[in-house]
Amino acid sequence: MQIHAVPPRDRAVRVLAALLCAVAGGLACGLAAGCSSKGGIDRELQAMLDAQSAKLDADAPSPRLRPRLEPAIDEAMREVPTTVNPGASEIRISAASPTRDVAARLDELSRQSGLLGVPIGSETRAAEVLPEQVLTLEKALRASQRTGRELLSAQEEYILTAIRVLTERHLWGPRLFNDTTLGLAGQGDDGRFEHALSIVNQLRVTQRLPSGGNVEAAWVWDATEQLRESSTQGYVQGSRLVFRGDIPLLRGAGDVAREDLVQAERDLVYQAREFERFRREFLVDIASDYFELLQTKASITNQRRQIASLELFNRATAARVEAGRLDAFQVDITRNRLASAQSQLAGLVDQYNAQLDRFRVRLGLPLDTPFDVSDELPALPEPFADLRTASDAALAYRLDLQNSADRVEDRKRQLANARNGVLPDLNLNATGTLPTDPDDNTGGLGLSPDDASYRVGATLSLPLDRTNERLAVRAAQIRYERSAREHDRLTDTIVVESRAAVRAVEVARFQLNLAEQQVEINKRRLRGQRLQEDTLRPQEIVDTENDLLQAENDRDRARTRLRSAVLAYLLTTDQLRVTREGSLEQVRAE
Known about the structure:
single chain; alpha+beta; two-stranded parallel sheet; 54% helix; 15% strand; disordered N terminus
């Protein structure tokens, strides 16, 4: 049974109705496509990130999508951006007085930089730091996970990879399209012109096939109105269902057809591993920067201790000179060393301030955030492993090595795909059409199975010219061999790094033990000289003070190297774990 639409009698009404019908079809398709809103896309993307990270590790965090930014583009639309570059005559600077109190000025700059009162001058006093301004390593690591720019960039790369997967998956799902075309045509005959208004709406759905090729189903609706009728029937309207299919049987058939989707899915796994590996590397970098801050802070403490000791010794030496027990030039030795120590303290304070600023930048904190670092550190057991155990752990756990091995498999697959490209083309294609009755000018939706048509065919294209494809096979072979070689090199490099990490821990511990012994030796030496101060030359005591300061600084550097070496060992063997909040997860020590 056929159902025919009753055409309107009035021509304008008929054309308007046809146009509304076409627009309605387009809107229906638009609404169907619009069901995937921004919020829906974000939810789907977040679910994919959560699922992928959970596959890597049940406790591994996934990047969280941040609120969308809608930046103003007024400045971006300007053809000539604004440049600020005043001339020298317009620039004004404040000139400093050569007689200013430089020590007080440096002290004030230290306060402004957030060092919170470490003095430069001869007076020594403890810095006053509020509890909320003390930054522990735990707080620093957590802050780096929230606002660290490097980590945010790594998160965004992970998200972009997930977006590429969703894009590729969408290409392999059913896809709806709707096209509406409005046309006006005219034909002249001896000055008499016939005009026709046509409306064509095509609603179609396409689907890729897993083994290659695609199928499509379309509903095509068209209407034509003769604006200047040459016959009694100037309005023609009908529709048809069209089915198409194109399936490759040789080249392009099989798994090669899904290459883009397979690679995108595998890339998401690689990116999940890289993101987790980056979190571990980032923790070690932040911790190393923190240890460097502690080392510089300890050097400041050592320098201030020496200054305080030299001030006392300088006063004692000056008293001995006034009493005539020493020559006048002897006090200049202690004064000279005291001035040198104060100069070194100024350099250390400036170094510390600069390190704090760089640390703020790395944590993503505002530059005017005042804080000082705490000496409180979590317990970090020193690993005790032989070279074989360390290298075996690294080869088993390193996520970047797993990525490298899987990328070798990618090259194998790409080589097989390249070989597929040399095959002949043999494509099967088919088309079927189910129209309305061609004898009915207002067919509407009344499809006529009796007027259906079909066409089935096959196309064979012999590989007479496959030079480029054969070159692609050769290139794929080279890329595979190179990736296998690079994987072997990375394997050997990781073994070397893991062995070096084991030795580095032992060397750092050995150096720290020796440095601590040197500190005690020089302390005893200084105490003994202080007891015989009246019988010794000032230069001898100054030399001991310098040796003690050097030993203390060497001890602090060795302590920093040991801390960094322990983290480096855990990172190199990939036995370091990071909590969801970004802090160090303690590995069980046996």
